[in-house]
Amino acid sequence: MGGDQLSPDDVVDRPIDLQDAWLDADAASAHGAAPAHGDGIARHGRGHGHGHRTGRARRRIALAVGAMVVVAGVVAVATTSAGTDPTDPSGVLMPTTDGAGWHRVFSEDFAKDTPTGGFEDAYQDRFSVYHGFADTAGTGRYSASALSAHDSMLDMRLRTTAGGTPLAGGVVPLIDGQWGGQTAGRYSVRMKSDRVDGYGVAMLLWSDENVWSQGEVDFPEGNLGSAAQLNVHCLEDPPQKCVHYETPASLSDWHTYTIEWTPVRMSFLIDDAVVATTTSSIPMSKMHLVVQTGSIGGRPPRSAEGSLLIDWMTIDVPAQGAEPPATLPEGETVPDQGTWTVDDRQTG
After folding, report:
1. If you average pLDDT over every residue of the chain, what do you get?
2. In the beta sheet, which residues pair with residue 102?
3. pTM for the complete prediction?
4. In this structure, what DSSP letter does residue 62 have?
5. Closest Cα to residue 193, out of 241, 257, 245?
6. Which pLDDT score, from 0 to 100, does residue 33 have?
7. How far, in whole angstroms, is CA 39 from its chain's centroid?
């Protein structure tokens, strides 16, 4: 290997426990979000508040060893289907309205196809892409080469490289070319996954300052192909979960997952139906949405391979002067304080 020229496999297969922290200066500029549970720099570096955008960073490694939080769940069998309708692969079109009190600031339905590994170039003004540092469990590595867009879907393809490194994928949506800065929002993603042993997914709200005690809200979270879980980490003790709920939905099926975050309540919806709502451990700091998938502890089987597919995603923020409430379940009595889930439904 000569000079600065690295192949994608050379970059991905560098040992994760290196301590030299070799970072490209370009990777520390522009509009990249700090990796959730990581100490490194994301693909485009830091900068939601700098009011500038630059071109794609050169393909160099942004090296980090992340703090570890393992995704939990029971794996179930799932397969992604072939022959999808390129205009409506999941059977539900992306909504074009933002609802009373909300203002649409981001929407993406992945209409532009890319080759494997070409997603970052094609969508550089839409997403910050995780690349070149350890995933949450520490056994895999985030790589732009795991991402592609086809048939109007984002495909995060999980697999192990020839050099033995499990690949992980992560994206942060950009609003007007910048990430983060939200203090309330409505975040919807329509997704499904294959069963891929040893891999999991988390769609989460994460602190702009990369400070765990400012909050972490995971929905959905789980092993690929398993039950979709909700986890709200406690502000006063982040390793603990103040809200944990395993939903009836399977990550192996197409579903629309929505996080509604307001200053006084959060609600969580699957296919527009509320499955949980809480006043517990609501983040008060600026946050951003992350969708990440990677290894879940230990080393995944080398033969494990499959995809997390995303049909579309949207982000709404409160309209100017508005304070939209979080959605409550129809016909149910919800406590003013605390947590309600669909298991608390009234019967009779």
Report:
1. 81
2. 318
3. 0.81
4. B
5. 257
6. 59
7. 17
